[in-house]
Fold each of these.
Amino acid sequence: MEKTVRAHTNIALIKYWGKANQSLRLPLMSSLSMTLDQFYTDTKVSAGPKNQFWLNGVEQSGQSYQRVFSFLKLLQEKFGVKGNLKVESVNHVPTAAGLASSSSAFAALAGAFCVHYGINLSAVELSRLARWGSGSASRSIYGGFAIWQKGIDNESSYAYALDEKPQMDLQLLVVELNKNPKELSSTQGMKQAQTSPFFRPWLERNQAELAQMVAAIKANDFSKLGSLAELNACEMHAVNLTAQPGFTYFEPATIKAIKLVADLRRLGIECYFTIDAGPNIKILSQLKNVKDITKRFVSEFHNVNIINASFGPGISCLN
Ligand code: ADP
Ligand code: DP6
Ligand code: CO
């Protein structure tokens, strides 16, 4: 019986949004994330009569099949192993909607590949491998807070745990405004973003923002963490708007949600937002305010689904 590997999604508080090397997925900046308890991917790799990729019970062809098997081919070459593979994966997160499905997906796939071939790796080695599938997946090896140090080559670009079991009261409310797959993948979006005149200035701020975020976490300073995460996300989306040609992942509902967060803050309900490559908004808050925030969002967005997530665990092998 082959084993299933589970990896949880992670949401970046300091974003990765640009590559120095496309094929190796070497980032232009370091990033910092929070792994979530409520969203994850379960993946099993077994020997097959032919290569096949099943996602949520449906056999895949085209781009998502290609992406999985070009990744697995790289891994097979690296470890000198062979054979057709059957990949069966279930996403407990909307796929390609800006809710970080690729982070849990490629962490779980790298893990399941190693389990299938009996390859034993350290967390750092697994993080490097997962990175080849999707950059953000490098961070999903760990629970709690993780940092992906950009590095200068394949060897030095990997993630490590900053704090796997944070004691901080940090809630991340995912407001599912639109669960449909996006038109522009993260891979394409960040490539386009690099044409913005604000891309370089943003990059120059990365190290300082990351250091400030680490300090906020260490000081258990929710206000600092939230305001910095919001600023960093807005910088990323400003870079998209000013790309040549410009684009945005925002939808009218996204703007409405941003304004609602500002409004709640004015009312003394402290919360901040972050947004990734999709229209959905994630609200950073503390336990005492979750009820009020949820109530207001549900009334303004007509029964929208809101998931209250907090810190999740690192990668694990089930059964
Ligand atoms: P997201 O915001 O969900 O991370 P991306 O554009 O980064 O969006 O990545 C989405 C792509 O990741 C999908 O189109 C698919 O190719 C791949 N993917 C998502 N889930 C899985 C999975 N469970 N197994 C393999 N590949 C997956
Ligand atoms: C906005 O890791 O999905 O979520 O490496 O091309 O697969 P690829 O991109 P991906 O990009 C994630 C972008 C982000 C920010 C982040 O997670 O750091
Ligand atoms: Co992604």
Amino acid sequence: SNANNSKVKRASAPTIDVRSGMDVESLKQAITEHLFYQQGRNIVNTSLNDLYMAVSHTVHDRLLQHEHKTMNAVFDNNNVRLVSYMSAEFLMGPQLGVNLIDLNIMAEMEQAVQELGFSLNTIMAQEEEPGLGNGGLGRLAACYIDSMASQQIPAIGYGIRYEFGIFDQVIRDGWQVEITDKWLRNGNPWESARPELAVNVKFGGHTESYLDSNEYLRYRWKPDYMVTGIPYDTPIMGYKVPSCNFLRLWKSEAEESFDFSSFNQGDYYKAVEYKVKSENISKVLYPNDEMLGGKKLRLKQQYFFVSCSLQDMMNIHLRFDGKPQDFHKRWAIQLNDTHPSVAVAELMRILVDEYHVDWDVAWHTTCSTCSYTNHTLLPEALEKWPVGLFAYLIPRVLEIIFEINYRFLKEVSSRFPGDNGKLSRMSIIDESGEKFVRMANLACVGCCAINGVAELHTELLKQQILHDWVEMFPERFHNVTNGVTPRRFVVLSNPGLSNLIIESIGDKWPGKLDELRKLEPFADDAAFREKFRSVKLENKKILAALIKERTGVVVNPSSMFDVQVKRIHEYKRQHLSVLHIIALYLRIKQNPDIDIVPRTFIFGGKAAPGYFSAKLIIKLINSVGDVVNNDPDVKDRLKVVFFPDFNVTNAQLIYPAADLSEQISTAGKEASGTGNMKFSMNGALTIGTLDGANVEIREEVGNDNFFLFGLTAAQVEDAKRNGYNPHFIYDNNEELRNVISMINSGRFSNGDTNLFKPITDNLLWHDPFMLMADFSLYIACQDLVAETWKNTAEWNRMAILNVARMGKFSSDRSIQDYCEKIWKVKPFNIRKA
Ligand code: 6GP
């Protein structure tokens, strides 16, 4: 009864706790105090950004409480294995909204902010997102650290604190223009610098051998210079659980005392030059997903963040009183593609050179620690570095790679005697011409697990680029199909749908996505379908307003929103969708009274700045839009929009408004895709090929609820082997001929018949991504899509079933797979610890 009394008391007179209180009064008080003591403002003279900062600091305080408790509990326990997710990219997206959801104080914060005279949505819109990634790979890393926290897996994400993230895209005259992303300009309330945890990283110089006190032959690295890594931590809260992990990103700085010699000799400029050189390492994210082979700074970035992270992990391990060679018992490292794969050699260097662990013991430790995820089959994305560059930048690491390779190749020749082809293919060093270090080979040698990101992708990996490795180490191979976090991509971005689902099946699903199955019966409930339709319509109205604001194009919210948003790449085939648009336009031009389903085609995505064809595809989309959108014959039945600057913030507004999701890559080329999952979760139907995770999405939602078209991966390979002839297809398909002729006629380029020639010539004479082969199948499938759209009840039934059957694609499930198959790590309940 005492407890009861105090409850009653607290409810009527809350004790305000400005650092951890979750009630409206505490939040208000905390915001007001942060506003004054951190920003020097009062609520009456605040700018929106100052208010955003104050609200975010208020949330950050609460996260720190959880982070502190989590880390104390973890570090108190000697038997916990932690995950280290190493990634050159974390495409985090805005933080305020998800943190409010994870802390379960969205409503309280809304009210607090409202009582202060503002709206939470306006404040959230103020946030400049940390775009520290290019696309799928970086966004996956962000989803995974979210899910690790939510699954109560003790984990640290390790990466680089780029001063400039992925460029901002603007469209001028239909072309992409890149603008520097100054995301730190207005301050970052989510991070804390931890200068006392700084570590140094060596570069350049030479190595030498010496005898240690036990007369053992050892090596040491005499670098030219050192660079200091300063960690910046961002808390990563779990969803409605007390666990809070963190993301630790490294900023490079000049090593304080290092260049004092030249400074003292009066060479002030040399000292400053060294400072600039050091700070450059974490200056900018590389936007290219293609060949980076010659980019010295990129290799420096990779080694810098890997070395910082491993030193930090060793420091943590030793703090637990661990022995260096037991490192693998404390840590499971996941290498997000080959970008951090130099970790294999660097961990060996630390164990052998710095802690004098025997080579064989160190090798066992290293292999038991590291695992590698491959994210692409595209040969141009397989990283390799000139041996000379390695020798120049990190000479000791190269020696260790040579030693690893020497021992490994001995093993290969004894397993496969006389197979010289295998030997040269599996060698870490490519010796076919100029010598290169092959990063995927280094990863495969030094990792106990290797995985692809969707079932099809893993099979193709095993058959194609990693075939030799399967023969050597079959037990190392796994599949872990990608997933996405429903907290950000449904709860936060689609409140209308979320509330409808909660009304119908309760609120357990965001943390347990299989629960969505309970929605299935509602697909046959006309009243529910109507509510579902009206949620979608509201989302489309919001997007339509934004499209008007950003592009000037007026679109009809009741038309079908046909959306393709992702990086622009030929294998993703944005231009196949353009061919379809032109085919529809031609049908209208041939018969202006034709009965045609009104559609709004929405594209978005960045092209790598050096990828000419991708940039020309953006220009083509905009050019076709200019003609189609303004032709009176079209009568607004078709609209084509290129939504500029596709990023996480914009993505959150686009997925909820989509009716049709375009997942039309050439089969066998898209490793998984994750946008495909976000669309389905938000009730879009997919038109797609049997590629990446599309295969599994179709399996889950049912063949009848998925618009499938196109060649299979095996058929694509067959066609290539048998001498694929795109021109022959063109000659035999009148609609296709008319479409291509229309482009070549200059109709979309003010009479310039050359502008888009690189695209059409490539399609007619090479067509490496088989658009010609899939064209007629795609058009036929799109016609079926249009027919289905006319039956609103049927369309919505299918869309609801898509939502209901997406449980598998929560990143929570992916993380559970990694824990069971690869990391051998269990959830750690800090309340029970
Ligand atoms: C991407 C793949 O292209 C995409 O299919 C996949 O869903 C995503 O990774 C996450 O696994 N790959 C990259 O972004 C990349 O840079 C080297 O690969």
